[in-house]
Specification:
The structure is a homodimer. Chain A is mainly alpha-helical. Chain A has one domain: Farnesyl Diphosphate Synthase. Helix content of chain A is 74%, strand content 1%. The first copy, chain A, has 14 helices and two strands; from the N terminus they run ααααββαααααααααα. In chain A, strand 1 and strand 2 form a beta hairpin. At the A-B interface, helix 2, helix 4, helix 6, helix 7 and helix 8 of A face helix 2, helix 4, helix 6, helix 7 and helix 8 of B. Chains A, B: It is an enzyme of class 2 (transferase). Chains A, B: GO terms for molecular function: (2E,6E)-farnesyl diphosphate synthase activity; metal ion binding. Chains A, B: Belongs to the FPP/GGPP synthase family.
């Protein structure tokens, strides 16, 4: 099966589960509308697709749980974008080709919609059926670490800090290991947990996740230079304008492309340690280094 | 034992546990500083003290878990204050007699510190020792509901909505049942869960929590009128100035005081259903209706 077919097979159900988890809560209409607006704005759904791809690798037929874990990760990712776009943070008015949440709903409701998505993600994990309580606790613990001060939020703080000075390459890598890497790693590791992967398999997948995370970010930095605003659905060239520390800024565009290739190769090498058909995860790695948005 | 002695006995340990849970995470220094600043700003610690008081009622000796659950609730409460105080929300510069988080750390870091506290609260519940996974999952599920769109955050949305029009009494009650009531209820109910309370005991405690929550809010509204800025540690008279729907505004000051007394009586009546020494919880109710800040 190709990655494209895999995505076509899973995306509709994934989005249905995601939206229903929000539609089904009892909450003020305008709050649900604001939460759904950003969830429905699309995006590549890379994180939940990784949960599903890893479950698929192990022929794990408990797919409903994979969709729910995927939805939980997407809620965290989406809340982080809503808060990131606020005027007090990155002050972005466009995201995925649409006005950002606060442009439509105002800063206060956007802040609260982000808060509610953050909180909801832990609730949907706790409420999963046919997953043992032990696994739920493990998933919740890992998601809290990946999404919080020790992961994504910590990475955002380092990222803001990096706007006022030039970071070294290890510092830049540390930003991205936390800011985008931690949640990608959770997506991949949670699939391994749901599928009862062995310690060796899980460790190989975590290695794959590490390199995929960095590759993803390097490609993001490259696209900011070579992409157009139309392709990206967000303002292109922002990094250069704001003198931000990026891989191309530290390594030149060519150097960044080489680094991207290195991480791609290391991700593929990690997959070789797993004695299963890893085609989808290989294609996923390829997609991440070749994507245009 | 008196309430005062109970608080003196538990508060130092509670605050130590709370601060250590943040001090021990690996995160950027300025993020931890911002998180700790608001946690250390004090406050009455009513929510964690309720967890401890309910555990005490059942002679539950697993005190360490009670402190951790209390700390998790206090993290949620504190994050909600940090976000509430932001310029895009209530725009408050003083809280508990100190400058608010964003005044010291800036809006971006304050937003992220709130996000991180929200996320961390679920992690500390997941990492508790000597609590079964089943109980952890139940606590995480209830906290997610109480703190999220169906509880506290939903109540804040209704509260903002109420600033632009006059609410009816049932609407106002609905705001407070969600905005402050849900988290207070969780504090009390979590103590019952940790202590293996019977269904009847738990239900009586939830009833107590309902009335305590409303009494707390009515007294808050009354204090905004009769209290001074110095006593409150925050700007007094803000509600009247902003034409906010409050109990005194809908019922007159005398009517609000009578309503407060009614909820106090109903809270005490609920406790009578529990065949244990409820002195501390009775005194807690009394403290809530008589407090000056």
């Amino acid at each position: 099966m190709s990655l494209k077919q895999f995505i076509d097979d899973h995306l509709p159900k994934l989005e249905e589960v995601l939206y229903d988890l929000v539609r089904n809560i009892k909450a003020p209409a305008q709050l649900k509308e604001s939460m759904l607006y950003s969830l429905e704005a699309g995006g590549k759904r890379i994180r939940p697709l990784f949960v599903l791809a890893v479950c698929d690798l192990f022929h794990n037929n408990k797919k409903n749980e994979a969709y729910i874990v995927g939805a939980a990760v997407e809620m965290i990712h989406t809340y982080s974008l809503i808060h990131d776009d606020l005027p007090s943070m990155d002050d972005d008015e466009m995201r995925r080709g649409k006005p950002t949440n606060h442009v439509i709903f105002g800063d206060a409701l956007a802040t609260l919609a982000g808060d509610a998505l953050n909180t909801l993600s832990f609730g949907v994990l706790a409420r999963m059926e046919s997953v043992t309580s032990e696994k739920k606790v493990e998933l919740i613990n890992l998601l809290s670490i990946a999404a919080g001060a020790e992961g994504m939020v910590g990475g955002q703080v380092l990222d803001i800090d990096g706007e006022s000075r030039t970071l070294s390459l290890p510092e830049l890598e540390n930003v991205h290991v936390n800011k985008t890497g931690a949640l990608l790693r959770f997506s991949i590791e949670s699939g391994a947990i749901l599928s009862d992967a062995t310690v060796q398999e899980r460790s190989a997948l975590v290695e794959y996740a590490h390199h995929i995370g960095l590759a993803f970010q390097i490609q993001d930095d490259i696209l900011d230079i070579v992409g157009t605003t139309e392709e990206l659905g967000k303002t292109a060239g922002k990094d250069i304008e704001s003198h931000k520390s990026t891989y191309p800024a530290l390594l030149t565009l060519e150097g960044a492309k080489q680094k991207l290739e290195e991480h791609y190769e290391l991700a593929i090498t990690a997959l070789r340690k797993i004695d299963k058909n890893t085609t989808i995860l290989e294609e996923f790695a390829q997609y991440i280094v070749k994507r245009h948005n």
